[in-house]
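Researcher: Please predict.
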Amino acid sequence: MIKKNTKIIFTDGPLENSSDLAGGMPLSKGEIISFYPNGEDSLVKYEVIDKEIDYLFEGDDHIVNITYTLAQN
C-alpha cells in the first residue's frame, strides 16, 4: 500500500510556520498559490520555491513524504 504524507513549510509572511496537509495537494516548483489565512478576506500569495520527495520502502508498504517550501510572493 502507498501512504502519502504532505507537509508545507511557509518561510515568511502571515503563514510562517509549517503544516501538514491531509490528503495532500500536487504542486510544482514555481507555482503561485493564493491563500486566505484564518478565513480573512485578504489574499496572500506564495510561490513554491522547493519540492522534496522521500520514498521509503517498509515491507509491503511504500511511504511517500512530500515537503513543499513556499515563500511569500
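Model: The mean pLDDT is 90.
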